[in-house]
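Chains adopt folds. We examine one example:
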Amino acid sequence: MTRVLVTGIMGFIGSHLAQRLVDEGVEVYGLVRRVANRNMDVIGNLLKDIALVSGDVSDYVSTRNAVKTVNPDVIFHLAALSPVRDSFERPFEYQQANYIGTMNVAHSLLELQDPQTRKLIAASTAEVYGIQTNEPLKETLPLHPSSPYAVSKAAGDLYLQMMFNSFGLKGTIMRPANSYGRKLDTSFMVEYLVTKMLRGEKIYIGSPDSVRDYMYVDDHVNGYVLAMKNPKANGQVYNVGTTLGVSNKELALMIAEKVGFDKRNIALGAYPPSYPYRPLISDQPSIVLDSAKIRKELGWKPTVTIAEGIDKVIAYFRKSSKK
């Protein structure tokens, strides 16, 4: 049985990935940072099927000890600080957690016996491309990160590419599009719009013309699973996205139509009160990925359209609000 360690198992994609791996009969371990009064709801239904190990990716000794304890065949490195806007106010924390954290995980894997027989699949992000003139974005483009978050992820991305080439480490870097389908965190765009509209509250769309490639969580997770199973993924970088761009305004109007929300309560060009600061010049007008490479090499393709995915999110929050 394949033994897998998931860093960031308490996160959005990590928890969904863990469930998928358990369903496929994989032996799953999760790296969890010790925090007082931690809410375990995100993996509550998984606790009987997985094992948790204490560790903090931002600390090398802690990470190395956790990796040695688990002795995994595969590490999915998903642990990260991710809200882009927060990174402008907490840049040093983001570099420590995301860049140094990635280094710590990779070097801990090298400490194991026969490290070249193991595999590291790491989450990068579409944000590493920054502001580009050509779309859809291809993996061969130079990286021009435009936020402290994107810099931290780009640094980890490039460091791992170096380790694949210089240390013979087997691994894959995934650059996913914006994903949605969260159940507990409603601060991201799709979940924010759905929950606010269902409650009849005013909506703020700070950048109505910004275009993003939105991918449903199940398709995101499927990319990771295919990368784990296919040797062709070793040493590769993959974009994972739908190649379809949707503006924030279009997204808001689509959801409003589906839930029967009064569109007059949508404030275009305004941010919610106390919204984290981000320099306007740093905001990419569009991020749409070219996913031809992963489609061709691993047979991945999106299976949930944006309309179908939004319906799933609406149905979930409607049901949960009645409990």
Summary: The two ends are 39 Å apart (CA to CA).
